[in-house]
Amino acid sequence: MSIHPGLDPVPAPVRPRLGEALVALGLLSPGDLDHAVEEQTRARGRRLGTILQDRALVSELDVARALAVVHELPLLDLDAVAIDPAVARLVPRAVAQRLGVLVYARDGAHLSVAVADPVDVVALDDVRMITGATSLTVGLAPRSVISAAVARVWAERDDEDALQAFVDETTVTAVTGEEDADEDAATIRLVDRLLALAVRERASDVHIEPHRRGVLVRLRVDGVLREVLELPAGGYAALAARLKIVANLDVIERRLPQDGRARIRVPGGFIDARVSTLPALHGEKVVVRILPSAARLPGLAGLGVPPAQRQHLLDAILRPQGLVLITGPTGSGKTNTLYAALSEGVDRTRNVMTLEDPVEIELPGITQVQVDDRTGLTFARALRASLRQDPDVILVGEIRDQETADLAIRAALTGHMVLSTLHTLDCAAAISRLADMGVPRYLVTSSLSLVVSQRLVRRPCPSCSVADPFVAAALDEAGITDHDGRWVQVAGCPACSSTGYAGRTAVLEVLPVTAAIRAALLAGADEDALRRAARAEGHESLFESGVAKARLGETTLAEVLRAVPRDPGRSAVDGQRGSDPSGGSAA
Known about the structure:
With 587 residues, the protein is an alpha/beta fold. It has 4 domains: 18-70; 85-141, Type II secretion system, protein E, N-terminal domain (GMP Synthetase, Chain A, domain 3); 150-291, Beta-Lactamase, CATH 3.30.450; 296-455 and 505-544, 3-Layer(aba) Sandwich (Rossmann fold), CATH 3.40.50.300. It has 22 helices and 18 strands. It has helices at 18-24, 30-42, 48-54, 60-70, 85-88, 93-99, 121-131, 143-176, 183-200, 236-246, 300-303, 307-317, 334-345, 379-386, 402-413, 427-436, 441-447, 471-477, 515-522, 527-536, 542-551, 557-563, and strands at 101-107, 110-115, 135-140, 203-210, 214-221, 224-232, 258-266, 269-280, 283-291, 322-327, 352-356, 367-370, 393-396, 417-422, 448-460, 466-467, 488-489, 501-512. The strands form 4 sheets. Strands 12-11-13-14-10-15-18 form a 7-stranded mixed sheet, with helices on both faces. Helix 9 (183-200) crosses helix 10 (236-246) and helix 15 (402-413) crosses helix 17 (441-447). The longest helix has 34 residues, at 143-176.
């Protein structure tokens, strides 16, 4: 710094300290800071951030936010950052964990690195020495987040090694005809790694499909099947047997379908899974359904239900009696929506019973009954029995026949709140389906409170989604004349496995059964007439709800057109109630 005669020297800007930054951000009170500083003075060598976290005054993320302000560094969200596994593995796992660093991208000799301690210059020097980098771009992240990311990167390497070992060993067995002594161990490692991979990729199902020349393994991620590897045919028998053992199925039986349930240890804890086998042309196909736990079940907001629709659903469930129907195809998230609504809208003062086939998620404080047609415990029989158990709320997994429909409606008329599902196109089709089952229309109008139709669409990956400059033509083709909005398109990147999407959100049509809907139903209205009656009251259709999500950038227009059926009888969805004489569907 140069000093000019007659001028006062300009002092260098003073960085705030960690405690001051926490107070400035509103994360810590001045009084708590004073007490923590006093404790730090007495216990020399302890860092202020550690003291504050030990006393539960701030979280690890709070400290990282304040450090980012103090050192003028970006705070990284590693879940949204595209991490290059090959680059991350330039630093050995033990070194990365000890130093609290993650190298996640490279541009020539320049590296991007996340650090937990921005003042640890020795750690950064070690990174330069190990990787040969000439320069670094440094960002901040909590140590636990970095540690989890490092473990995930190296777990992928372990998975690849385990899968390759299985391929190598089963190939040797197929060629020589002699079983390797370590084949069982390789199979166990393969199953463990395969399930760990499925959990890490947020897969809902693992498909293991034997073919003439090998075994194809696919994961269903965000509703779409993705091939992950192909195994030699010689290893199939051991793989299928291991999965049967895990699920307590009969290993010898290969001619009949089997279903079982398992609790499996994976990195980070346990998962519940359903294992289903089905005899096929080249052997049994095995599907493992990974079940979400009650602790990880998101609320209605987490599922993507907008506030107005959420309130309609909760208002209906809080009523002392009535029937609420959720409709949609298999895999559209109906059960999760019902569970989320129950957890938010029903407290311990009400007796809740569920009748399911099968019970997928165990909910605390709720009586859950496993329906099994093979033993005679049908939905109708279980519903009759549950009515003698003093229930307030009854969840019937599915209305499959007239007997179950009659019982559900009569239960709703006699002081119970009944929730159930149907497989229909939309809300109007669900209402008419009950009448088609033989339930008198006057009983339907007296009991039905709310109908919800649901689909799941994929969310754009935050790392590679960009504004869509060509949206106008697609909107016009879809019959959408209002082009305003934050439309996006996806490109694909390592963070989303080049799919362009990460996670799913629910698209809902929520139709309260109003006086106009009841009058139309009593007058003998068909599905189209019911839709017109709902439209006259300003009701938003399922497709309109999907377009509204795309307009906000919560999904893409292409995804809505893929997953959500067009409105029957009209083409425009911008509020102009035109008609579409073709009546076609874009789903």
